[in-house]
Amino acid sequence: MDVSDKDILRAIREGFDNIEMLKRFTGVCMGPCQGKLCMMHTVKLLSHELKRNPAEVYVPTVRPPIKPVFLGALARAAEQK
Question: Which sequence spans correspond to the domains of the chain?
Answer without folding.
Answer: 5-79
